[in-house]
Specification:
Layout (H helix, E strand, L loop, with lengths): L2 E8 L3 H13 L5 E4 L8 H4 L11 H4 L15 H14 L6 E2 L2 E9 L4 E8 L2 E12 L23 E3 L14 E5 L3 H11 L4 E6 L5 E4 L4 H7 L4 H25 L1 H16 L5 H4 L12 E4 L2 H8 L2 E5 L2 E4 L3 E4 L4 E3 L2 E4 L12 E4 L2 E2 L7 E2 L3 E2 L5 E3 L8 H22 L1 E6 L8 E3 L6 H4 L7 E3 L10 H10 L7 E5 L7
Helix pairs in contact: 1-11, 5-10, 6-7, 7-8, 11-13
């Protein structure tokens, strides 16, 4: 017989550990386990090892609502974030519920039995579990590999060509010439970090991104923490930062020209009046059509002003034996080339899904409250915000899942299935971003709708009221009891 749990969580990263905390705190009578395909806690923060790895959101919102972030820096390095996640798991006994090296391959739901069968592999051997509810906390990145374009002439290049997602442990770039290809968050993180020891770093981009600088330390947070209990200070700073982020996002979308001018003006001030900001820091798209890139304490700008780094906006004609030749004819010599060219997306970690023997194509489903899928019972996913800290939405999702399970227990329900029965609801892309990594995979993702509860608002305050206070019952959610099959 298969081992059975009330809830199986997939993934032991930032959101998976949060899910474990919420489950054991809100529903202490329920059994749960966390299945993790790798050998360590931490997810993204354990996987990535590239120089300068850090948060691109402040830790007062990226941190858990239930555990204050007490380190000095609000924009934290990857090692500190990883330790924070591991400490949270250990202090709350969540680590005892984790089963490492369990790669989930298939989820099969039986309405008659009201349970999921989870087929996994551990060190190549099959493992089968069952669960009443499955909560996936795998994010939407492909952990196997990042996106690597087919660069012309790359086979001729004699130097090191690496992707940040697979950073070599022994890569030596000290006193060497480095080219970082890319314009996103990873590239603007890598350049100043590598410039500290490299001979010279060139950031090569096809087109610019919006780059915003902010202090690595939060002075208000430091002041409050010195005077108030840690949890109160943390909550106040968290809500302050939520309000600031939402205000800036609203301004960016409602007044894009003014917001754009403001951001570019700040970059010009940081780099000086003679720097060619128009070429290297003025995007062709409106703010928040793609994510903004965060620079803590002007580190990228300082590297550029010191001459340790250089921005080049051009396209690649071909790799050569010693570097790259650009479309303009310029040649860049490089001992190391870092392709910070983006990520691949993979929903639910690539798990195959079946409901009553029929395969489920998630691209043909619609997301319910940003966490469940039309026609799929007893399955939720923790997916964070694209315009704010990931954990803000995941915390709300975890709390809602616990409320939903508690309601089902009180009423004697064994299954809950979102059903799209309103013909006036139109389908739209789940993520409205023009970024390449989104556009390459968005057709494989579920859709969102034009009405509640199918619409994804990307608004923490609206979600807080909906997911924390709103009823778990609505016309789109079908509940069923043992022995009663849900309607099709």
């Amino acid at each position: 017989m298969s081992e059975h749990f009330d809830v199986v969580v997939i993934g032991a990263g930032l959101s998976g550990i949060g899910a474990g905390y919420h489950l054991q705190t809100s529903l202490p009578g329920k059994s749960y386990c966390i299945l993790e395909s790798r050998e360590a806690i931490g997810g993204t923060w354990d996987l990535f090892k590239y120089p300068g790895l850090r948060s691109d959101s402040d830790m007062y919102t990226l941190g858990y609502s239930f555990r204050p972030w007490t380190e000095g820096k609000a924009i934290a390095d990857g090692a500190s974030i990883l330790q924070y996640i591991r400490d949270t798991a250990r202090e709350n006994g969540i680590d005892k519920h984790i089963r490492f090296r369990h790669a989930v391959k298939r989820l099969s739901w039986s309405s008659r039995d009201a349970r999921w069968t989870i087929e996994a592999e551990r060190d190549g051997a099959p493992v089968t579990l069952t669960a009443g509810f499955v909560f996936t906390c795998t994010g939407y990145y492909d952990y196997e590999a990042g996106y690597m374009p087919e660069f012309p002439g790359a086979e001729r290049y004699r130097g090191a060509l690496v992707h940040p997602q697979k950073w070599p442990d022994q890569l030596d770039y000290a006193n060497k010439r480095v080219v970082v290809i890319g314009s996103g968050a990873t590239a603007v993180t890598l350049v100043p970090a590598m410039a500290q020891t490299a001979d010279h770093v060139t950031m090569l981009q096809r087109s610019p991104s919006y780059v915003v600088s902010m202090p690595a330390r939060d002075k208000l947070a430091d002041w409050l923490r010195a005077r108030l209990p840690a949890k109160l200070a943390y909550a106040l700073v968290r809500w302050r930062n939520v309000a600031v982020t939402m205000t800036f996002y609203k301004l960016a979308r409602s007044r894009p020209a003014q917001f754009k001018a403001r951001v570019i003006g700040m970059v010009q001030k940081a780099l000086g009046p003679t720097y060619d900001v128009a070429t290297h820091f003025t995007p062709r798209y409106d703010p928040w059509d793609q994510r903004l890139c965060l620079v803590p304490d002007d580190d990228l700008f300082r590297s550029l002003k010191k001459g340790k780094a250089e921005m080049v906006t051009d396209t690649i004609d071909t790799f050569t034996e010693t570097g790259l030749r650009l479309s303009s004819g310029r040649e860049l010599a490089a001992d190391v080339v870092v392709a910070a060219t983006g990520l691949k997306l993979k929903l639910l970690g690539g798990v195959k899904l079946e409901v009553d023997g029929a395969p489920v194509d998630l691209a043909k489903t619609m997301t319910y409250k940003g966490m469940m899928y039309s026609g799929v019972p007893n399955l939720a996913s923790a997916i964070g915000y694209t315009n704010a800290s990931w954990t803000l939405k995941c915390d709300l999702t975890c709390a809602y899942v616990c409320r939903l399970l508690a309601y089902m227990d009180r009423k004697g329900f064994v299954a809950c299935t979102p059903r799209l029965a309103d013909p006036s609801v139109e389908a739209k892309p789940l993520i409205d971003f023009s970024s390449g990594y989104i556009q390459r995979a968005i057709d494989q993702f579920p859709k969102q709708g034009t009405k509640t509860p199918w619409r994804l608002y990307q608004n923490y305050v609206l979600d807080w009221f909906s997911l924390k206070l709103g009823s778990v019952r609505d016309s789109a959610m079908v509940f069923s009891k043992a022995g009663v099959l849900p309607p099709r």
